[in-house]
Design a protein that fits this description.
Helices cover about 80% and strands about 0% of the residues. The protein is mostly helical. Helix 3 packs antiparallel against helix 4 and helix 4 (about 70-100) packs antiparallel against helix 5.
């Protein structure tokens, strides 16, 4: 990809959100699958979600949405509050997917797109007031 296209792409909060989200999803999915060996699907989802919470509470505000340094504590709190609400949404989708007969390792795949869209929409709308323009 030519540099002229790469720089504007990296400035996009959506692109940065996707990179963080992809890495977070792969890591938490692997943790979820590992935890399924010992725990039920809901407990496995919760424990893998806690790991994801640690990741997103630090990376989304600062790197994806370019939150100003003075607003870091408030933005981390907001990220956590949003992530908690989308966890509940994800838990509902997980239970619904298992309820219709999907195995847990596939049910979680139904959760990810719903939660990702909800996270991005909520975080973007909230963090736009915390962010500063990127220099480039």
């Amino acid at each position: 990809m030519p540099i002229s296209l790469t720089v504007p792409l990296m400035r996009s909060s959506f692109f940065r959100f996707l990179i963080i989200g992809f890495c977070n999803t792969v890591l938490t999915y692997l943790v979820f699958l590992t935890l399924l060996l010992r725990f039920d699907p809901q407990s496995s989802y919760f424990l893998s979600w806690v790991l994801g919470l640690l990741i997103v509470s630090f990376l989304y505000p600062r790197w994806a949405f370019n939150v100003q340094s003075g607003a870091n504590k408030a933005s981390s709190f907001v990220a956590i509050a949003i992530y908690v609400s989308t966890y509940l949404l994800g838990l509902f989708v997980l239970r619904l997917s298992i309820g219709v007969g999907l195995p847990p390792y596939l049910s979680i795949v139904c959760v990810y797109p719903v939660v990702a869209l909800a996270n991005y929409g909520l975080m973007r709308s909230v963090f736009s007031s915390f962010s500063k323009p990127r220099r480039g």
